[in-house]
Amino acid sequence: MSIDRYIGRGVTVIYQDAAGDISKRDLTIQSVADGRLHGFDRAARAPRTLLLERILAWESADAKRVRPRA
Q1: What's the CATH code, domain 12-63?
Q2: C-alpha gyration radius of the chain
Q3: At the top level of its lineage, which domain of life is listed (predicted)?
C-alpha cells in the first residue's frame, strides 16, 4: 500500500538521513509529491520534509507491523 493514501493520518516512519543516521519519527502526513513527504512531527512539534527514497519502513498509526518501503 502506498504511503500517500495516508495523507491527513498518523504514521510511524523509519528514516535514514544523508549522513546514514537512522531515526524513528511519528508524523501526520500533510502531502506527498515530487519524491517528498511533507508532514508534522508530533514529538518535535515541527514540520518535516522527508525524501521518500530514504524512508526504510513505515506503518500507519493503527497498524500492528512496519511496512517495508515499496
Answers
A1: 2.30.30.360
A2: 11
A3: Bacteria
